[in-house]
Amino acid sequence: AAAGGVPARPARIWLGEPVAIKERTSAPLRRQAGGNLLVVGQREETAAALSAAALASLACAPGARVWLLDGTPADSAVAGVLPGLAGAMVGVAQAVGYRDAAGAIERMAAETRRRLSAEDLAVGNGHGRAQPPPPWALLVHGLHRFRALRRAENEFDFSSSADDKAPPADRLLAEVLREGPAVGVHVVAWVDTAANLTRWMERSLLREFDARVLMQMSAADSSALIDAPTAASLGAGRALLFSEEAGVVEKFRPFALPGAAWLAWAGERAAARAASLRP
Predict the structure, then answer these.
(1) In whole angstroms, how far apart are CA 180 and each of 28, 121, 222, 243?
(2) 70 within a domain of the structure (yes/no)
(3) Is the pLDDT of residue 156 over 60?
(4) For 74, 83, 91, 147, which has the most beta carbons within 10 A of its beta carbon?
């Protein structure tokens, strides 16, 4: 909540056009448990378009910062699209190299802890909750391609290490997922299959993604992700948005990948916004 008890407006990710007659499909990243977004599906171009939409949407949030981990293979038809978009968002978005993924996670975890400590200090001093800090987001495009983020198979791998050694990246990512949303630090992640999601994350972490976007997949995978086989009946060019908190499923048509003209326009808007926020 902001000063005076006014709640902070959540960052909102615009995803596509609804199949039903209503406003465009979007997912809010609320400052509460579960305020993260998960995308699951094997259509790489659709996944890239959804990540691009997330990046562009987050860049419109006042004061937002976005760190992009792009796992797109070099030979993919969409290689370079997301880093290009991030590069256009000067002062807002930053593409992080593959080998620097763990460092980006450490930064997000450190910011989460800093914000939690600042909030506790303000409340402890009787000042109430301060004006909420601007949203930070970690956009992981292709979680299944980042070995550094894969959960350890042996639960004792970390506990047996030296006490002064930094926690592994998968533990820090779990910390950000659980603790970050309450203080405006969010994760948006795409993974290709439900099986890979369980290889990279503990099953219990699924609940930290209140908003889940599914492309067409098997009834079993759909049921594992949203407790319903609905995604099995999706056609090409369709996806669904599920909200665990609201208990609703919405079918929609994901936005297409942005063209050069749109990238130029978005870059100008992001640069102007960043300049207006400088002291």
Answers:
(1) 15, 17, 27, 19
(2) yes
(3) no
(4) 83
Phi, psi of 26 (to 5 degrees): -150, 160
- Asked if 11 contacts 45 with a C-beta cutoff of 8 angstroms, the reply is no
Distance, CA of 107 to CA of 25 (rounded, Å): 31
pLDDT at residue number 6: 40
The pair of three-digit structure tokens given for residue 138, joined into one six-digit string: 């970690």
Number of domains in the chain: 1
| Integer CA distances (angstroms), 210 to 9, 31, 164, 214, in order | 17, 12, 34, 13
| CATH assignment at residue 227 | 3.40.50.300
| DSSP run (H or E) holding 40 | strand 37-40
Q: How far apart are alpha carbons 103 and 111 in whole angstroms?
A: 12
Q: How many residues does the chain have?
A: 279
Q: Decide if 175 is inside a domain.
A: yes
Does some domain include residue 34? Answer: yes
Do the Cβ atoms of 68 and 82 come closer than 8 Å?
Answer: yes
State the angle between helix axes of 169-179 and 101-124 in degrees (0 to 180), rounded to the nearest 10.
40
Name residue 18's beta-bridge partners.
Answer: 252
Model pLDDT for residues 189-241, shown as the tens digit of each residue: 999 999 999 999 999 999 999 999 999 999 999 999 999 999 999 998 999 99
Q: Could you tell me if 251 and 234 are in contact, meaning their C-beta atoms sit under 8 angstroms apart?
A: yes
Q: Is 243 helix (H, G, I), strand (E, B) or coil?
A: strand
Q: What is the pLDDT of residue 1?
A: 41
